[in-house]
Amino acid sequence: MIREIVTIDEEKCDGCGLCVPACAEGAIQIVDGKARLIADNLCDGLGACLGDCPRDAIKIVRRDADEFDEEAVDEHLKKSGKPPLTAHAPQPQPQAQGGCPSARMMEFSRKSEPQANGEEAGERPSELRQWPIQINLVPPTAPFFKDAELVLAADCAPFAFPEFHRDILKGKALAIGCPKLDDGKAYLEKLTAILRHNDIRSLTVVHMEVPCCTGLIMLARQAVADSGKNVPIETIKVGIQGDLKG
């Protein structure tokens, strides 16, 4: 069958092995000093390993490949002495894929209800509709990105702005990160892959007022340019005391 699956450029790969733990299914191993996809049916094609390759040696391609087989993955993990995928799955969870609890892909159904005047903030419903949300962990081909409005938010923004869920996140997909502390190159590659693989309808960048956080805006603009897509970008600046800046 023709489907999306990872491919590894052996010339670029230096055998660092960072992609191995990033693949919850155990589909990637270091063989003769190079990362290799050991079996097509062990790869779900979601690309959780993309952001972990410092050499940009891993890509997602469409080709003829065996269908992803979760039972084969469980058997493979069992032989490797690791828990099967099902052992990691929070129960019950709808539409879950993947293995590692931190990167296990999930979509949630949310029904937002009008809030009564004076209701405490802790009683407001979450508008989060997916997992994971950290940009290094989100798979570029995750179904929650399809035809989505995407929020790219600085880590601090949801803590500073109390109405983040209601006023910004509602009905949208989310990716978060810190342009100061994390690898900007990996962020750029991941965001570009998300834009290339999906028809993202809009990109909202939520950043803090501190100067280093504006790197998130430059990253978003570069990713849109590199993706070749025409995606409108909106920016929202959050003050360190939680107010929105003009």
Automatic annotation (TrEMBL):
Query: Could you tell me which residues belong to the region Disordered?
Result: 71-103
The signal sequence is: none
Record-given protein name: 4Fe-4S ferredoxin-type domain-containing protein
List, as start-end ranges, the regions of compositional bias called Low complexity.
83-103
Q: Where is the 4Fe-4S ferredoxin-type domain?
A: 4-33, 34-63
InterPro entries xref list: 4Fe4S_Fe-S-bd, Corrinoid_activation_enz
